[in-house]
């Protein structure tokens, strides 16, 4: 299927030189094209250009961008969107100079997150994670990686992974799951880290 998006006020992030990636200072600039069109064939961008230079006519569908802007979505490659409770205070503690070990001794850290996650139902985890997913999608994220890692037990890690699967099945974003076993050593395995690694 050939879809033409026309009447685009400006396309951001185009690449005319065929570069696959930008590094260093190159990342600080973004090429644009005004008064543009974009052709999508079978779900992939196949061409773009200036409307003043003509555009494809043989298309199955036309979408009028209404003079709006078109830009690539963001890919968030490292998230922990499935969790229970908040660790905002720990962030402030770190800013104020506390080490991760000091925060953990005060009852914070991953073990605290694991306790909260264990006490939270799968449905509640899904509902709160979906709020976060909707927020990042509204800000332009089109692909997101979501880690487990706050479960620290087989049961709770699987609970997190099921929530991530439900998210993937519920949203139009590209969602990738990462199993982050042994994010920390579970309390039940203190002093027996080798056994915990074997479990993972």
UniProtKB/TrEMBL annotation:
Pathway(s) annotated for this protein in UniProt: Amino-acid degradation
Xref: InterPro entries: HutI, Metal-dep_hydrolase_composite, Metal_Hydrolase
GO cellular component: cytoplasm
Sample GO molecular function, one term: imidazolonepropionase activity
Tagged with keyword tRNA processing: no
EC number in record: 3.5.2.7
UniProt keyword terms in alphabetical order: Histidine metabolism, Hydrolase, Iron, Metal-binding, Zinc
Gene Ontology biological process: L-histidine catabolic process to glutamate and formamide
Name of the protein in its database record: imidazolonepropionase
Source organism: Candidatus Cryptobacteroides merdipullorum
């Amino acid at each position: 299927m050939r879809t033409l998006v026309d009447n685009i006020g400006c396309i951001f992030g185009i690449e005319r030189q065929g570069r696959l990636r930008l590094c260093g200072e190159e990342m600080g600039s973004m090429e644009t094209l005004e008064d543009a069109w974009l052709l999508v064939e079978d779900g992939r961008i196949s061409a773009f250009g200036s409307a003043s230079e003509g555009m494809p006519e043989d298309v199955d569908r036309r979408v009028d961008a209404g003079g709006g802007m078109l830009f690539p979505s963001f890919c968030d490659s490292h998230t922990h969107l499935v969790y229970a409770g908040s660790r905002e205070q720990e962030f402030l503690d770190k800013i104020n100079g506390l080490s991760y070990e000091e925060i953990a001794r005060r009852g914070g850290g991953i073990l605290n997150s694991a306790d909260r996650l264990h006490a939270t139902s799968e449905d509640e985890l899904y509902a709160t994670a979906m709020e976060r997913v909707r927020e990042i999608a509204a800000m332009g994220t089109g692909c997101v990686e979501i880690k487990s890692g706050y479960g620290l037990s087989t049961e709770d890690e699987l609970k997190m992974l099921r929530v991530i699967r439900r998210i993937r099945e519920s949203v139009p974003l590209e969602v990738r799951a990462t199993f982050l076993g042994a994010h920390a050593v579970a309390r039940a395995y203190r002093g027996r880290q080798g056994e915990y690694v074997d479990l993972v």
